[in-house]
Every structure is written in C-alpha cells, then in structure tokens.
Design goal:
This protein is α/β, with parallel strands linked by helices. The chain contains 18 helices and 5 strands. It has 2 domains: 262 residues, no CATH class; 140 residues, no CATH class.
Length: 415
C-alpha cells in the first residue's frame, strides 16, 4: 500500500527567524519531552507560513498533526474518491457516514473557493515538510468516523435528525460562507464549524467533537513521544480551538494514555437482538392473523393489500423521486413491504444496490461528485449522488408507509 505521505511535496519555507512569534502557541514539558503546541487557523496563509517556518528551523525531531489517516488521504489524494467501491459502502451500511463525509467535503470546497486556500493547508504542509526533512510524523487525531459515531450516539434521535439535516443542507448550499463563521473558524475547529450553529446549541456535540478530541490528542502525543521513540522536541500542529484544552490535558493528565485512547475510541455496540424489528414484525403479522380470524377473509386480505400498497407504493415513489431506474423502482416496491420485518434488510439499500448495478457509476462521476452535489440538477446528473438520493428517499418513503400501514391496521383491529 502506498504511503499517503509520499504524494505530499514539501515547498520552500519562508525565511522567518521567529515563526511562532505572532502565532498562538503553548509549550509543555513533561517526562523529558518538550511539546510545542502551535494553534493554527485552518483557512490562513499565515498559519501555513508559520508551520513551514517552524519545521525549517530545525528545532524539532517530531511533528504531530491534527489529522487521522482518512482525512490525510483526502488531502493528499483528491482522486481517492474515484476508487471507492460504492456497492461495498451500501452493503456494509456505511451510506450515512459516506454522506456525512461528503457534506464535510462540500463545506471545505466552498471555503476553498471563497478564500483561495484549501482548508487544512497548514496540516498538509506540516506532514509534507516533516517527511521531507526525515522527521518522525504522527497523526494524532481520532478517526473522523469514530467521532461521527460517538456524536450520533449521544445526540438521540432528534439530535441526529437535526445534525443529519444540517449536513445534507450543506451539500446543497452554494452561497458564500459568512464573515462571522469564517472568523469563528479561524479561532475554532473545522469539524465544529462544519456542523454550523447546531454545535452551539448542543453540549453533547461540542463535547464529542472538541473536548473529547483534546483528551484524545493529548493521549496520542504522550504515546507517540514515549522514551522508546527517542522524541525530545515535538511540534504539534492543531487548530487554535484545541490549543487551551490540549495544553491542559497534556500538563495534568496522569492516566495511562493507552487506556484514555481506548476509552475515547469505544462505541456502544447495538443490541444484538433487534427488538424494534421483532416487535414490528409480531404486530404486523399478528394483525394479519387477527384480521382473518375476527373479520374473515375480506378484513385480513384488506389489511395485507393495504400494507403492501402503502409501504411498497411510498417506497417506490421515494425511489422514483430520486430519478431511479425502473428496475430500482420495482425493487423498492417489492422490498418495502418485507424489509421493515427483517433486521438485516433495508429497502433503501436494496433499491440503491439495484441502481448502482443498472447504472454503474463511472470514474468521471466520482471525480465530479463534489461539484455536482452543489446543485439539485447535479444530484440527478451524477450517478453516485443519485444512488445516495435513492437510498435516502426510498428509506423515507418506506418509513412513512410503515407508520401509515400500522395506523390503519391498529384502527381496524380496535374498530
């Protein structure tokens, strides 16, 4: 496997005898290691210059960067998206995470086009220059997928709906990012800013996206600079919003860093027993049986026909609204009455898989994805985006059908 660092080329550093003089920074010494924490603005040319100047000064033997392998790959290899196996994403149930990452990428692209600098350019420069000068380079941020999962679990269903809606809205937004938001970003964190105003109103989201990552990165710094590594002078390049918290945890934390990291990487396992699906299946199938027993063939048959038509019809309508192929629409109609009763199936996944099989996304679709999702027309033109739209709208239609079908059944049984 190719090292993503190899695709990052170092650039000549600016001449500056004191690259950190005008930049927010903190110095922490512990366990024989001197940590210089450089707080950067993710949309600032000055931060890029400060990072490159600090590394060029030759004072450090190790560079730590606020990135995880996934975010580094996105910076180092923009074409990595074109090699994605979309069918695998659907089968593994990672569609929502893929859409969330797409929303983050769309927000970053808007910033890049408006400000003339790629968000995270200073992090990319830190990796490139560190490798070019044969320094040890460590990625200390938590995997963005884990951060999304932990945030989702803490928010509850309404919070997840608001967060998901905000991320989806960011895909369609094409207006300039506001001045106030940009100024906040210069003092804060890219992930936090990507969630918009929702982060301000949600202590759970702030804790997961900012506070937890402060602790995590402090633990990773201590791990990567243990005595066996030989690190004595470490430059840590992080967003300015993390500077104070990171310095605090680095000074005061006494627990084993491996235990802290394990704790902050843990995700609650979903219940192995699908209670909701089982209860729903018992209710629906029991309703059919009750209908035949109490009302005779006509009532039982009416309940079955209504369930099939309302769930299958709305699932198919959702698929059609996404511009689905006729075979995808047919698959949605067939799957929607059945999948709510099966814990391992989802109508949106089945219709999206059929869509991806019939209209296989091309290399050009993946390459144009970040541009196409900026407009409604682009969503329908791009085959990757249309598969995602197929998944969400089919699932939404089926869910509405389940509620309507269940209400009709309950009314019949109680009437």
């Amino acid at each position: 496997m190719n090292d993503p660092f190899d695709s990052l080329a170092a650039s000549p550093a600016p001449a500056d005898a004191s690259p950190l003089a005008d930049q927010p920074h903190a110095i922490v010494e512990r366990d024989g290691v001197r940590y210089t924490l450089l707080g950067t603005a993710h949309v600032s040319h000055a931060s890029v210059d400060a990072v490159r100047g600090a590394i060029a000064g030759g004072a450090y033997d190790t560079v730590a960067v606020e990135l995880d392998p996934q975010r580094l790959a996105a910076l180092a290899d923009p074409e990595a998206l074109a090699r994605l196996d979309l069918v695998k994403v659907l089968r593994e149930g990672k569609t929502a995470l893929f859409a969330a990452n797409l929303g983050l990428a769309a927000y970053q692209r808007r910033l890049a086009e408006q400000l003339g600098i790629e968000p995270g350019a200073e992090l990319k420069a830190a990796v490139a220059d560190g490798k070019a000068r044969n320094l040890a380079v460590h990625l200390i941020d938590r995997d963005v997928g884990l951060t999304f999962k932990r945030a989702s679990q803490r928010l509850g269903w309404w919070g997840r709906a608001k967060l998901g809606g905000g991320l989806v809205a960011s895909l369609f937004a094409d207006e300039d990012v506001g001045h106030e938001e940009i100024e906040k970003l210069k003092q804060g964190d890219l992930l936090e800013s990507s969630f918009g105003e929702f982060a301000d109103d949600s202590p759970e989201l702030y804790d997961t996206v900012i506070a937890e990552r402060d602790r995590y990165m402090a633990a990773r710094l201590r791990e990567s600079a243990d005595r066996a590594s030989g690190a004595r002078e470490v430059l840590a390049v992080v967003g300015a919003g993390h500077l104070q918290g990171l310095a605090k945890h680095l000074r005061e934390e006494t627990r084993d860093p491996r235990a802290i990291r394990a704790e902050l990487e843990a995700v609650k396992e979903k219940s192995s027993f699908p209670w909701f699906t089982v209860v729903l299946a018992l209710f629906v199938l029991g309703g059919f049986v009750w209908g035949f027993w109490r009302g005779g063939f006509d009532v039982g048959a009416d309940l079955i026909v209504y369930w099939v038509l309302i769930t299958g019809g709305l699932g198919a309508i959702g698929c059609a609204a996404s511009g689905g192929h006729p075979l995808s629409i047919l698959a949605a109609f067939i799957a929607s009455p059945v999948t709510p009763l099966h814990p391992a199936l989802a109508s949106g996944t089945i219709s999206a898989l059929v869509e991806a099989w019939v209209r296989k996304p091309t290399y050009a679709d993946f390459m144009a994805l970040r541009d196409d999702v900026q407009s409604v027309r682009g969503w329908y033109r791009n085959r990757v985006a249309r598969v995602l739209l197929n998944f969400f709208l089919t699932s939404l239609g089926t869910a509405i059908g389940v509620w309507l079908g269940g209400a009709r059944m309950l009314g019949k049984l109680l009437g």
